[in-house]
Amino acid sequence: MTTRFDNAFAKGPALVTFITGGDGDTAANLDALVAGGADVIELGMPFTDPMADGDAIQQANIRALGKGTRTKDIFDLATGFRQRHPDVPLVLMGYANTMIARGANWFAAECAKAGVDGVICVDIPPEEDAELGPALRGAGISLIRLATPTTDASRLPAVLEGSSGFLYYVSVAGITGTQTAAQTSIEDAVARLKAASDIPVAVGFGVRTPEQASAIAKVADGVVVGSAFVDLVKEHGDKAAGPLRELTQALAEAVHSAR
Amino acid sequence: MTDQTPVNRPASPLAADQVNSWRALPDASGHFGQFGGRYVAETLMPLILDLEKEYRKAQDDPAFWSEFDSLMKDFVGRPSPLYYAPRMTEHWREKAPAGKGPKIYFKREELNHTGAHKINNCIGQILLAMRMGKTKIIAETGAGQHGVATATVAARFGLPCTIFMGATDVERQKPNVFRMKLLGAEVVPVTSGAMTLKDAMNDALRHWVANVHDTFYIIGTAAGPHPYPELVRDFQSIIGKETREQMLEKEGRLPDRLVAAVGGGSNAIGLFHPFLDDPDVKMTGIEAGGHGVDTDKHAASLTGGKPGILHGNKTYLLQNEDGQITEAHSISAGLDYPGLGPEHSWLHESGRVDYVPITDGEALEAFQLCCALEGIIPALESAHALAALPQLTAGMDEEQLLVVNVSGRGDKDIFTVAEALDVEL
Ligand SMILES: Cc1ncc(COP(=O)(O)O)c(C=O)c1O
């Protein structure tokens, strides 16, 4: 069975975009990302304690929760997205506690019902897979794991085991939206990861501009951009769709024409 | 609570003598039953595994423990006394039914260098940091006690040190902020969230993720990802080991009940752990009940929370039905945290230890009573343990022995207490 992920990564390098659910007019913003040419959408589930995120996404979490965003709202956004965009892969990204609060099986079933394709959980490493992995896989949802500069060759098989959809390479040892990795270190890492895995490798953290995205798309299967979009939502509030679409177009062009 | 059989045994095969032990956990994967574990971002995972490897080596290295012991003796000032508190004993005996009211002993951790038990753990962890070749130290702090203890050991061993502290706490704990600075630490005010201990821990973790190559994170309580809960407990167990020896020497037998305040749970687990396999020794952990556990202003995660995942471990947390963490409240900054260490969650569920909430008001009263009756100004954290004495002593016979862990001294708290009592300084 081909999945939405297969199709998204089959066309050449893919643009993966992230925004935080409940921040700004999220439904309109998701549509703008698709209209601008994003190939995969990551929707952040807001959490009170986003330990792996830098200031931009922390603030987005606070804004979303401040508006009263609930888990139910995130699934409503996902359900609406799936109805409007039947073919675009949708990934929920967030932290373990909001995913297991009503039980992993409940969460996996809700994901399946809403048409979510994959889940990225920042604070469940392969060692704790039992917490969420079996429930997701059982419901046909991809568990997308993170590999980092500190993931050495001996750990990589454990990271790849049970993950699907794509592998998310976090290009800097750090938090979102801060440093940017050197291009050569990205190239080396992607080569290493691709040699070990048969799922696509997308690279993120610190990617903001079409130039960076293009350089990464020359070697990787996907480029993930997050904080740059979240910054636009902060700046434009409920009227961010236009600017989001413009930035997405520029990034998508750069990524899609990189090779 | 009379069934003393461990209910959550580790799944792995155990030696016969460990099967009936309460002291055999965590298991190989760092779990205490369903609690504990290693819920961290992938970037930290290799480092956490390294730390565990290094700790296993240190555990078997007599040189490590001889350095630890010698610093405990000459730098920290251990052993801390086990002190019979005569007037406190009399006071509660008078209020108790006839024949009731046990002998009350204080384990005097407040006499340690830097004024609390926190230093025990910091000495152990900085020795590990140096074994691992790490050259920078970071820590989180709430009240500033752990920050001061960390800054102290960093100064002692000449390592640069950065302390993350919520901006709210920086404001309400100015003397400790200045102490840390005098000791050469950089204090970073954290402005995310409610700007208290939980947020300080978030920012310390964020900093650590970006600096794993050269930085060691000295976590201040028996919580966080495995192996922290285990190693913090082991370093703090010096409290219980000494208490055991001292009580045997003074009374020729073991105590009947141990009492300690539980923030993250390090002073409590340090006192309890060496006694867990003595079925006649009962234990009570005191949670911060704030304005009352039926309000939304407390820090009693066992009484008012449910299991969840935060800061690298699975444990009881104050949270809403979506899994969003709710803000804790306690008059005591050291107890003002919406979770606690995973081993306490396990000891709670398995019934080996009782956990009881004490309100801000009760703690304040006990604080003053201890000053007046024993000439000891306890930390507000420790005052929570002292405040459980009325309920605990009423049911214990006169010949019985009760130990309260006076985990810290209250000099740091005089401003908070003055304000609560409407006294202008
Ligand atoms: C004196 C004292 N006691 C107790 C605590 C609570 O921590 P724990 O539960 O880890 O002992 C603190 C924390 O700052 C403290 O300073």
Give a written overview of the molecule.
The complex is a heterodimer of chains A (259) and B (425). With 259 residues, chain A is an alpha/beta fold. Chain A has a single domain, classed as Alpha-Beta Barrel (TIM Barrel). Helix content of chain A is 46%, strand content 14%. Chain A has helices at residues 4-10, 26-36, 55-66, 71-84, 96-100, 104-114, 133-138, 156-160, 183-196, 210-217, 227-236, 241-256, and strands spanning 14-20, 40-44, 90-94, 118-121, 142-143, 146-147, 167-170, 201-204, 222-225. Chain A has a nine-stranded parallel sheet. In chain A, β1 (14-20), α2 and β2 form a beta-alpha-beta unit. The longest helix of chain A is centred in the C-terminal third of the chain and has 16 residues, at 241-256. Chain A starts with a helix and ends with a helix. The mean pLDDT of chain A is 96. Chain B has 425 residues and is of the alpha/beta class. Chain B folds into two domains: 41-55 and 118-233, Rossmann fold; 77-115 and 237-420, Rossmann fold (3-Layer(aba) Sandwich), CATH 3.40.50.1100. In chain B, 42% of the residues lie in helices and 17% in strands. Chain B has 18 helices and 14 strands. Chain B has helices spanning 16-19, 45-59, 62-76, 86-95, 118-131, 145-157, 167-172, 174-182, 197-210, 228-236, 238-251, 266-272, 301-304, 342-350, 360-374, 380-386, 389-393, 414-420, and strands at residues 31-32, 35-39, 82-84, 103-108, 136-141, 161-166, 186-190, 215-217, 257-261, 282-290, 306-310, 312-317, 354-359, 401-406. In chain B, strands 3-4-14-9-10-13 form a six-stranded mixed sheet, sandwiched between helices. The model of chain B is unreliable at 1-18 (pLDDT under 50). Chains A and B meet through α3, α5 and β6 of A and β2, α2, α9, β11 and β12 of B. Residues 116, 118, 142-143, 145-146, 221, 261-268, 334-335, 379, 381-382, 407-408 of chain B line the site of pyridoxal-5'-phosphate (PLP).
